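Cross-posting from the chemistry board since nobody answered there.

I work mostly on the small-molecule side, so proteins are not my area. We synthesized magnesium ion and want a rough idea of how it might sit in this target. Sequence and SMILES are below. Is it possible to get a predicted 3D structure of the two together?
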Amino acid sequence: MVSSLHSLSAPSVLRTTLSLPDRREGKVRDVYRTSDSPSAPLLIVATDRLSAFDVVMPTAIPGKGRLLTAMSLGWFGFLRTRGIIGDHVLSTDLSEVEGLGDAELRMLAGRSMLCRAARVVPIECVARGYLAGSGWSEYRQSGTVCGIPLPSGLEQCSRLPQPIFTPATKAAEGHDENVSFEQAAKQVGAGLMSRLRDLTLAIYSAAAQYALERGVILADTKFEFGFALGADGKPTDELILVDEVLTPDSSRYWPASEYAPGRDQASYDKQFVRNHLLQLVADGRWNKEPPGPPLPEEVVAATLLRYEEALAKLALPAFNAVPCGESR
Ligand SMILES: Nc1ncnc2c1ncn2[C@@H]1O[C@H](COP(=O)(O)OP(=O)(O)OP(=O)(O)O)[C@@H](O)[C@H]1O
Ligand SMILES: [Mg+2]
């Protein structure tokens, strides 16, 4: 079922160079404007790049971009049924984009979304239901996560008494940095931060409950929000959910059946890649700086398998491109 999403014979896509304006390259996605109009929809292409420790690896994970696009769209569809907030997805039909050839359309199919352009709020909105990653590191040192005091006696990967909102600043380069709610509020305003916190926790809770019913723990996740651009290319006051949502690139997913606090969890994300890289670091063969080392075939295959498993387990509804949400 899942293999239909990414035909094994389809070539992997490490980088795209379409003749569309304003090409931007993120770690994983290539973003274009679809015309010269300042408010033109964006074409967001999920490549098969993988980043670990914030370094983009030179080896493609063939089909990863398609799997992650399917998952993101599935979640956007799910969230639309909840009506929590409008989102940026317009369509996956690229036939309306001028200037793309047939070969490009084939390459882009399944890994692309046409989206409303937005002025992205420069805060990563993270919700955590469990104590992992940088949250666990901070808690061990200070008993807090992003300045939020937590009960004592929690273990690695413990479930938190209730989900918490832990913002991070979007660093232009390098690693994002966890900040307190107050620090983030100083940057973008307290009123906006309160809205972002409430939205982040509402979306996380709805998604975590859905996932758990399917045997998957959504331990934490990150959202980005933005103000949709008006026809003049200037941001309106319409806040929408942008970027990818609830993919293993932006979230920690754990199989519920194997969950136990007090240790690392098996996960549906880049665990194989990270473990492989940490071994290289331990052996003195890589220093966590770019360029990343080429990945062996078995690591690529194992990673892809985990992404496929997560998608299959979540069984998200097909995306229905009918816009809905609070303000549309
Ligand atoms: N609707 C939107 N309007 C404008 N920008 C968007 C929109 N949706 C997503 N983006 C931006 O597109 C980029 C997607 O690329 P990718 O996720 O690969 O970047 P990244 O390496 O995570 O970088 P960043 O730290 O900037 O998010 C991100 O910078 C994201 O903020
Ligand atoms: Mg990103």
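Reply from a structural biologist on the board:
Welcome over. Reading the output above for you: The pocket of magnesium ion (ligand 2) is lined by residues 26 (CB under 6 Å). The chain is about 30% helix and 25% strand. Happy to explain the token format if needed.
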